[in-house]
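Why do we care about 3D structure at all? Because function follows from shape, and shape follows, mostly, from sequence. That is the central idea of this module. The next example makes it concrete: a single protein chain, its amino acid sequence, and then its structure expressed as tokens.
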Amino acid sequence: MIRNFFLFASILCCTGLKAQITQEIFESFKLQERRDVKYYIPEDYSPEKKYPVAVVLDGEYLFDQVVANSKFYSTFQGTPETIIVGVFQKENDLRWEDCAFEEDSGLPAEKGKLFFEFLGMELIPYLKTTYNTAPFTMFVGYDITANFGNYYLFKEKSLFNAFISISPYLAPEMENRVPARLNEINQQIFYHLIVGGEKNDSRNAILQMDKALKSIDKVGFNYRFDEYPTANEVSIVTYGIGKAWGNMFEMFKPISPKEYKENILTSEEPVYKYLDDKYNSIEELFGFRKEVELNDIMAIYAASRKKDDFESLKPLAELCKEEFPGTMLGFYFEGEYYEALGEGKKALRTFEKAFAMEEIDFLTKEMALEKMDALKADFGF
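And the structure:
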């Protein structure tokens, strides 16, 4: 692949890998033209970490919004820092050429096919060879550019795992083709569809697609729909991106009270399995093992107690010994496990080990001592 970069601006100071935002001219062999692109690389980027990638079309309008939300959520909600690339399309109405489709077939027009390859065979590979990226890749578009993202679903394996589709100007039959494809694709997909209050030619098709997408009951397909009746064609972007970004990384967040009540307490599976599945899914999608949140440990512990699922305390205890070594967590939970089994001697010895370790969260040495005294009284030690 023949490609050259001509750096002409650097914003918010900094250079190289430590740069926060840079703007470049990307010389595309596929398009046979130079394209303006903008990159956001997290300020503390480290080649030792993996970073999801977000490709943002209509870069002049959407890039800054996406970057702002990414920084906010990574700072305050614990979502992963993300590499973001914005493709400029305003000049000479390039967006309509890049994302044009044939009116009869609904498939990309000639320039659209080249633009499809530009993103998939030049721009994203450049990011993945230059930076340490995670498998999770997101597409963000508005109107005609939102529709364009759908074409990647029709590859055998979609280049993108997640789509934020804002007021899409749908190609013919897309309201039927997208649900049909998502129903059969063997890949975990996150799809967030957003519509405002304006009446336009695509509104009925969007609502029809929403209805079809909501009917898909399939593991690995995560769908959200947001309608903002008071939002116009400008404000819909601000309304939509913030919530959508948070939802895309929902699994990365600590277990919430709602998740605890609706997903964990109602499940018939062992409580610990929920935690194990959550962190395995994160590793599969993002390419790295996230450190287990203390909040999540405590949620699983509480659910184990509430549901009398004491078998879950054993693997939870082993996990705590790995994730929180030196603290009481692992041995205290293990002690409760043996206590529930009626194995008094093992429980006593385990609580003694917990007593010798550091307190954490609600667990205190006094609680371990009380357990030890109760076991001695009950079993006559």
